[in-house]
Specification:
Radius of gyration: 21 Å
Largest sheet: 6 strands, mixed
Strand order of the largest sheet: 9-14-13-12-11-10
Helix content: 25-40%
Number of domains: 2
Order of helices and strands: EHHHEEEEEHEHEEHHEHHHEEEHEHE
């Protein structure tokens, strides 16, 4: 393997096609590793989550020049104030992170990465502090094995729950497969919305020319929740615009609204990517709570996902009870640290 380090944003920008082509065959393939997402995130450093950072993206190529590995890293101080190499996208707004390499190259790439960090004359931090790696990722085992061979300490800790639904491809089969009480509740709420005395309709935001306005409507719905309003600083609002626009350009944005008499009552910001629906965030106008517009919209989105033969409906991080009411099963993301 020929190992190199990318330190400049312009050099990183030039990798787009090779990056996404490699991601398509990677052992870990999630939307938060798309090149356009990473570039959008770096532009705002996670909406101001990080005050400073320096790119430290490690690439591996074969002798013929073919790209076979990317460790999308940056140097910063972690939450404990220690200099560390963290995954681009860390921590708050990127649900799943990892390195990018095919399964057959994973072990060798991880070995090469540790050797490179040890020997780099620029002396980067010899602490890898990686958040939001799925517990099913083969990277975790590869890191543990490489750490043992190179005398790095290895620790991993469970973080948030990440419920998801495996879809059967048929709405009735899906709805009949969840708890009877919850099934009746979902159907009752959807029926009540259908029979409401004011018109209730849902739709996707598909007009690129109107997308900025739709994003503002979505952020306004998010801000009805006091915790989300606090989260939506000016820097974070700008970051959300950048990410949503990047997802739209990439063709994997799913922004859905439900309206009551023409007024937006609830919304879901999802990614429709790799035959999965990835539920990124949501918003609700509490004036319409009697109609349960969030549940109703979620029901319609699950019906649509089944009809379109999507394989999974991934709620990602957060253990809110409604996710389990819709039949989700649990898993976790991991924080993994390697120290020399």
């Amino acid at each position: 393997m020929l190992i190199a380090t990318i330190r400049s944003p312009s050099e990183l920008a030039n990798l787009e096609k090779e990056w996404n082509d490699l991601l398509a065959i990677s052992a870990s393939h999630v939307p938060f590793l798309r090149h356009e997402y990473i570039m959008a995130w770096w532009q705002g450093l996670g909406g101001g989550e990080w005050q400073h950072g320096e790119l430290y993206v490690v690439t591996a190529r074969r002798e013929d020049g073919k790209l076979i590995g990317i460790a999308p890293l940056f140097e910063t101080e972690n939450r404990e104030g220690e200099p560390a190499l963290m995954l681009l996208g860390s921590i708050e707004i990127s649900d799943y992170l990892d390195i990018i390499t095919p399964p057959e190259d994973l072990a060798a790439f991880v070995e090469a990465l540790l050797e490179h960090v040890e020997r780099d004359p620029a002396s980067p931090p010899r602490l890898l502090d990686w958040y939001n790696v799925l517990e099913s990722s083969p990277t975790l085992h590869a890191l543990q094995m490489a750490a043992e061979r190179h005398a790095w300490t290895f620790t991993q800790d469970p973080l948030q729950h990440c419920p998801y639904i495996s879809l059967p491809g048929d709405w009735e089969k899906y709805i009949c497969g969840i708890d009877k009480k919850q099934r009746h509740e979902i159907r009752r709420k959807m029926r009540r919305a259908d029979e409401y005395y004011l018109p209730v309709r849902w739709h996707f935001a598909e007009d690129g020319a109107a997308l900025d306005a739709e994003i503002e409507d979505f952020l306004s719905l998010m801000a009805h929740d006091p915790d989300k309003a606090k989260f939506l600083t000016p820097a974070m609002r700008a970051q959300m615009h950048t990410i949503i626009q990047a997802a739209h350009r990439g063709g994997w944005l799913q922004l859905a609204f439900i309206e009551v008499n023409g007024v937006k009552a609830a919304a879901y910001l999802n990614f429709d990517y790799m035959n999965h629906i990835w539920v990124y965030n949501s918003g609700l106008d509490f004036r319409f709570s009697e109609l349960s517009p969030g549940w109703v919209l979620l029901g319609h989105l699950l019906e649509w996902a089944n009809e379109q033969k999507r394989q999974y409906f991934d709620f990602m991080r957060g253990d809110e009870q409604y996710k389990y009411h819709f039949g989700a099963i649990d898993r976790r993301v991991i924080r993994v640290r390697l120290r020399k």
